[in-house]
Write a structure and sequence with these properties.
Layout lengths: L5 H10 L8 H14 L5 H38 L10 H29 L15 H27 L25 E3 L5 E5 L5 E5 L7 E3 L1
Helix pairs in contact: 3-4, 3-5, 4-5
Length: 220
Amino acid sequence: MASFDPQFAINLLEANQLKFGGTPQEREAYLKEAKARLGDRTPEDRREASKLAVETSKMLLTIAVGVLVASFAWMQFARKDGVPWFSLTLTPFYVAAGLLALSMLNGFRGISEIYRRADGRTAPAEPAWSTKPVARLLNWQSWSGVAALLALFIGVVMLGLEPGAHKPTVSVTIPAQAGSPPVGGSLTIEGVWTELRLRTAAQQEIKLPQQTLPVTVTCQ
């Protein structure tokens, strides 16, 4: 069965309009009602639909830019926390950035196609205003944006589950030495002193007097 074409039906009605009333007013009213029921759209209706599609695409582009900036911010936060560039934790952020770039590309292409069609540079023999040729691009823009948001959400969850990198609480620099000793693991302080005082965060103080036996203090 051939697909229903409203315009073909309207053309048949107009060709046989003498059968739809005894006066011109009755025939005109009948045709008007028939066109409304068959879904006839005026050029003004199509133009408004195209303008709405462009505004929606622009709004999605603005959202995509904001989400892309947020993705870079989260990646920078992860890097400061010690997460390597090439890791499973940062992979969702890369996926989100790629999907956002695809969404923005389809949005720009859809807007450009609508304007080119209205200007007559493409499909000059067809109606100037129509969203049908760009429906696929606008759908791709929407769905890729939704997928990017999902990927960003997964990335934030994985970043929250990532164990924090161990940061040493003691840093040692030796004068006249090239560089500093490694800070990974524990730090052992050895030597001879006349008196050593250890003070905790609760202001508790421990005094270690000079001893002949070696005493080792380990800082974690």
